[in-house]
């Protein structure tokens, strides 16, 4: 029996990877994420799928696959297909980003999820503070160097560098030969050598198929490539010449970014203040002996928002938040010490500036991707208005979590797989001209690619 690969997401789109690999009765999903553009023909910020209807509203428009023995009884309660005993062996999760794991909560709870040990810590921190799509299902953890068995498949995880710790690619040793999957990767982060390790491991395995991401594959000319090291040195320069408060917004679980900002602070005599959510994440990750993270209360301070009724009463805070109240900085504390602080503020927390009342002349560092659609552009206008209102200067500074064009193809050509399956890209067809070794198989949603 041949090995098949069927993509139910990540097809001509960025994110939403749901890649089914089937081999002699073993059926595993590589990731089970929510796509950014998934269902946008029917849903928007004003018409959303009903969470209480589980899979139902997604199945109506073919956004999720109508597969038997996949979803939980609860999520199928009002759906067109009936619940059946699980017919899938596992989800193998590459990393803890929503577009790779966001729909796992809909799956039958007896389908185990394999994930990196660090992902389990990220999940634990998120469960406490904001909820996690991995809910309370069984997580079986691995690290690089491990092999694990799922049904008839031998799975070899190999670390990659990405904008979140604990990211992996995989080699699945199937009955027809090895199948490699990159997950999301870059070479320009602090741990770029980990992606090189993956390339070496995958090339040595001589895969019959390579499923690769291509987020930044595009024909458009790019701006100069920015590495995470560049972010650190440019931040240091901004910190050195700025007076008054400096604040920034960035994705809270990008630990490389937290470290870049922390080091820039160390060199310029500022102190980094993070949200309670980031503080809780850093506390959890400090248990991971392979990671170096700033110590909460020592290396980084914690910003405390006022709670209901506009007070700082202990009783108003959740238990996980209370742990930080003693070492916390209030809006007033930030105002008093604004010349020596660098404050992390999520975009939704910008109204805190009204309480902080910073002096004019400070700096804002926009440390996320530039807008790529109309909604993002509108957001950016609002951010610029806030920054302008408080008299701050605006700086854009970001290193992507994904490799640029040429590095994606150096990976593809370096591994030299017989078949190349591009996912997590808006331009899969560009792979055909750029792939020098092997043949490109363009995935189609729900259509199986037969290997061997
Ligand atoms: Zn990712």
Number of strands: 21
Q: What percentage of the residues does DSSP assign to strands (E)?
A: 15-25%
Question: Average pLDDT across residues?
Answer: 93
In this entry the ligands are: zinc ion
Total helix count? 13
CATH topology of the largest domain: Metallo-beta-lactamase, Chain A
Distance between the termini: 9 Å
* Helical content class: 25-40%
Poorly predicted parts: none
The fourth-level CATH homologous superfamily of the largest domain is Ribonuclease Z/Hydroxyacylglutathione hydrolase-like
The structure class reads alpha/beta
CATH architecture tag of the largest domain: 4-Layer Sandwich
Write down the domain tally. Answer: 2
Q: From the alpha-carbon coordinates, what is the Rg to the nearest angstrom?
A: 23 Å
Taking the sheet with the most strands, its summary is: 7 strands, mixed
Spatially, the strands of the biggest sheet line up as: 6-5-4-3-2-1-21
Q: Shape, please?
A: globular
Under the CATH scheme, which class of the largest domain? Answer: Alpha Beta
Explain how this protein is built.
This protein is α/β, with parallel strands linked by helices and 452 residues long. The chain has two domains: 3-219 and 401-451, Ribonuclease Z/Hydroxyacylglutathione hydrolase-like (Metallo-beta-lactamase, Chain A, 4-Layer Sandwich), CATH 3.60.15.10; 228-396, Metallo-hydrolase/oxidoreductase (Rossmann fold). It has 13 helices and 21 strands. It has a seven-stranded mixed beta sheet. A seven-stranded mixed beta sheet has the order 7-8-9-10-11-19-20. A seven-stranded parallel beta sheet has the order 15-14-13-16-12-17-18, with helices on both faces. α8 links the parallel β14 (300-303) and β15. 45% of the residues are buried. The structure holds zinc ion.
